[in-house]
Design goal:
2 copies of one chain form a homodimer. By secondary structure, the first copy, chain A, is of the alpha+beta class. Helices cover about 25% and strands about 25% of the residues of chain A. Chain A is globular. Chains A, B: InterPro entries: D-Glu_cyclase, Putative_hydro-lyase, UPF0317. Chains A, B: Its EC number is 4.2.1.-.
Chain lengths: ~260, ~260
Amino acid sequence: MQHNASLTTPYAIRNMIRNEDYTGSTSGFVPGFVQANLVILPQRYAFDFLQFCQVNKKACPIVASSRTPGATSIPNVAHDLDIRTDIPRYRIFKNGQLIEEVTNIKEQWRDDLVTFLIGCSFSFEESLKLAGLEIRNITENKNVPMYMTNIPCESAGIFHANMVVSMRPMKPADAIRAIQICSRFPDVHGAPVHFGDPAAIGIKDINRPNFGESVTIKDGEVPVFWACGVTPQVAIANAAPDFCITHSPGHMLITDIQNAHISAF
Amino acid sequence: MQHNASLTTPYAIRNMIRNEDYTGSTSGFVPGFVQANLVILPQRYAFDFLQFCQVNKKACPIVASSRTPGATSIPNVAHDLDIRTDIPRYRIFKNGQLIEEVTNIKEQWRDDLVTFLIGCSFSFEESLKLAGLEIRNITENKNVPMYMTNIPCESAGIFHANMVVSMRPMKPADAIRAIQICSRFPDVHGAPVHFGDPAAIGIKDINRPNFGESVTIKDGEVPVFWACGVTPQVAIANAAPDFCITHSPGHMLITDIQNAHISAF
């Protein structure tokens, strides 16, 4: 009982992850707190990447970043954070190729690494649920469907990509409410970027997502599309930097930042 | 007549400025279009500065930035932009000291310079006026009063500062409307950061601003404080980079971006 109670705080979960007592997905963990995508790059790529995120805010909203190359913590994000151990599972890339998946990056750590945390749709899905909207991927217990589009991001240095979007089907009235709610959360992708005809943004078959799983679209529903945090991963794959670390999909950093705290208004 | 009509477009004004036919303040020019603060820094400071702006968005909202060191234009900002000539007046700083004020920077230009455009309160003042609110500094034809506060910005690399705020007195009902309206404009400082007691944010005498001019506060009004774009200038003065170029106060870049286009919702 004591044990379970303590796991209701982000700090307790991070400690469990740090000790490698848990190495699984963080989906659904500690409702109410921001979970973040991780990108770690050598300092020489840091300006280009930060600029790519800055000019493509909807797809790549920066929640926080380390302030000194080699720093393993980030101000105002998580108590006693050690970015090398506090995420369940990491991916190591060399020249754009996935080399290995590991449960800590103590051996891979270098003094020139800069850490970026990028907002994740878990936060706005929670706000939509609180407003009584159904999130189909949650109802169907699936990973949200994600699609490559023909919407070009702005390029910055070596980083370029078309936008990746996630899709949630909704009745028009619910879509309108979702647009209102998500407008309050620019740091986790903000309002949708499109609804309706998938072909209008270059999606050939709505039933064959490029990432995640297909979900049911019922009669009277329209697909609603949000800019997706997989976009920076595509930009990194395109740029193929000689070294990069990310989280493994679904294995996020659980921060001490409350979802309610990041609303714009 | 032909001449005046043509000056209703940002491009026409920029051309007049490029030709040095006009070297004055841009206040009130081409209503409806975003005017931007200018910061130009050598590439080696660019990451720290972009990160400082990113973690202090309210005070330092980045509107756009050049994508390649030495580039004299910026994508999606202004047709045929040449950042070396299209601003009426520039300030050259060396080691944090103002060296000279010039009307173009063709001689000072270097291949390692990166340009940042930062949002300016002209945009939200226009939205407030359209909503029928009185802006006291405009009514009294004064530069808005600005104050150093004790609100610390987050530091990034060499850049650190306390927040500078601008102040507009309002009746509470108008302040509430202003909070709603400005929430829609996170890229030009967003919602206010404080209202009421100046001492609560470290302002000793509301009648003695650190920058700009004092304005009348009438009975029944409260001072309302917004994060101010002078903050990055204080951060630059504190950091004293060996080289830096800014616009001269009030002598802004007039972009082709419409104020309405930068609203978050």
